[in-house]
Amino acid sequence: MRLTKKGLWGGIIREFRDFLPEIHDSAVTTLLEGNTPLIETVNLKDVFGDIRMLLKYEGLNPTGSFKDRGMTMAVSKAREEGAGAVICASTGNTSASASAYAARAGMRAYVLVPEGSVAMGKLSQAMMHGALVLQIKGNFDDALNIVKEITKDYPVKMVNSINPYRIEGQKTAAFEICEHLGHAPTYHFLPVGNAGNITAYWRGYREYEKEGIISNLPKMMGFQAEGAAPIVLGHPVENPQTIATAIKIGNPASWDSAVKARDESGGVIDSVTDDEIIEAYRLLASREGVFCEPASAASLAGAMKMKREGVLADGDTVVCTLTGHGLKDPDMAIKASAKPVKVPADVKKILKAMGL
Ligand SMILES: *Cc1c(COP(=O)(O)O)cnc(C)c1O
After folding, report:
1. Pocket of ligand 1, candidates 66, 198, 245, 325: which has the most ligand atoms within 8 Å of its Cβ, to mutate?
2. What does the pLDDT average to over 66-71?
3. What's the mean pLDDT in 221-229?
4. How far is the CA of 14 from the centre of ligand 1 (A)?
5. What's the gap in Å between 153 CA and the centre of ligand 1?
6. To test ligand 1's pocket by mutation, which of 65, 94, 202 has the most ligand atoms within 8 angstroms of CB?
7. Which of 4, 220, 255, 334 has the most CB atoms within 10 Å of its CB?
8. Percentage of residues in the chain with pLDDT exceeding 70?
9. Sign of the CA dihedral 193, 194, 195, 199?
10. pLDDT band at 117, cuts 50/70/90?
11. Which of 144, 197, 220 for a ligand 1 pocket mutation test, highest count of atoms within 8 Å of Cβ?
12. Nearest alpha carbon, ligand 1 atom 5
C-alpha cells in the first residue's frame, strides 16, 4: 500500500494525487481520511458458503462515514477558490463531515436537515463543530432544492454530492480496495441514497482498469430501502420511508450516473426491506464484531438477497461497503438489541442471571 512508501498516511488528496484534480498544497484540508480497513468476514459461512466476503469499513473515517473522502476534496477546493462558507442538505452524515472540515478550514458551515429524521450522533457532530444547523419541516429532497436555490444567488459553496469534487474524492475507496486485493472484486455491494457513492466507486474502478493497475471490473450492486426506492421503481418517491435515514431519499441527484454504473458493469439496483436491513445490521455486529449504521447494512442485506436468489457463486470475491459507523445512531442500536438485565449488586443474583 501507498502508506508504506512514506511511512504515514497523508489523507486521500496526498495519497492519490495523480488521480485527483489538482489542489494547491496550502488549500489542502484533511483529517487524514481514507485508508480504512477491508475486513474479511469469518463467521458468515452458513450464510455465504465459500464466497469470499469482505467489508470496506468506512465508519472508521474521521467523522465516521465515507462522506469525509469527498468532503476533504470539496472543502479544499472551496478554500482554494476563496469561499468563506459551505452549505449542504443532509440526512446527517454530510452535515457532520461538512461541519468538521469547514471547522478545520476556518470556514462557516450551514447545514439543512429534515427535522426528526437525523440520527442523534450525526446531529451532535454538526452542533459540536459549530455549524449553523437549520432543521426544516420537510424531507431531504426539499432541503436539497432549497440549497440549490440559495447557492444560485449567494457566495456559499455547495458541498452536496452534486459538487463534482465530492465524487472525485469518494472514488478513492475503490482504489484502496484494488490495492488491498490486487484486483477488483467480482461484485461490489453498496447502499444507494443520493447515488453519488455508487457513481464514485464505478469511476474509481474504471480509472484503475484504464491505467492497467487492475484487469477486471466488478459488477456494481446498489441497494435502496424498499420504502425509498425511486431507481428501482423508475420514478421519484414523494414521501420516502425507511428506518435507514441515510438513504431516505426520494429523488437521487446522481440517478443517471447510478443507472450507468449498473448497466456498464452488468450489475443490479434493487431494494431490501427494513426488516432485511435490521437483520444484516444485527448479524454484522453480533457475529463479526463490526458495528455499522442501519443504512450501511443495506449492502450486506443486498448480498444476502442475491445469495438467496442464486446470483452469487462459490469462489466469488464480494465487497460490501459499510458506509457509516454504528455509533451514529445509538437509538436504533438500542431498539434492535436485547435489553440490559437489571440486577441487584449481589454476586449470587448476578451468577443466577448469568446462568451459572
Ligand atoms: C450518504 C450515505 C449513504 C448514501 O450514499 P449516496 O452516495 O447518497 O448514495 C449511505 N449510507 C450512509 C451511512 C451515508 O452517510
Report:
1. 66
2. 98
3. 98
4. 24
5. 28
6. 65
7. 220
8. 98
9. negative
10. confident
11. 197
12. 193
Q: Name the grid cell of 323.
A: 458506509
**Distances from the Cα of 33 to the Cα of 12, 37, 66, 71, 285, angstroms:** 6, 12, 9, 10, 23
Task: Work out the pLDDT band at 7, boundaries 50, 70, 90.
Answer: confident
Cβ of 119 less than 6 Å from ligand 1: no
Residue 287 DSSP one-character state: I
Residue 100 Cα, ligand 1 centroid: separation in angstroms? 17
Which triple of cell numbers denotes residue 348?
A: 449470587
State the distance from the centre of ligand 1 to the C-alpha of 192, rounded, in angstroms: 6
All cell numbers assigned to 20: 485527483
The residues facing 228 across adjacent strands are: 225
Instruction: Give pLDDT tens digits for 126-140.
Output: 999 999 999 999 999
Q: Is the pLDDT of residue 290 over 60?
A: yes
How many angstroms separate the CA atoms of 73 and 92, rounded?
19
Average pLDDT over residues 66-77: 98
CA distance 252 to 121: 24
Parallel/antiparallel/unpaired status of strands 132-136 and 108-114? parallel
Cβ pair 194, 133 in contact under 8 A: no
- What's this model's pTM, rounded to 2 decimal places? 0.96
Q: Is the CB of 196 under 6 A from ligand 1?
A: yes
For position 43, what pLDDT does the model report? 98
Residues 6+ apart with CB under 8 A from 283: 44, 47, 300
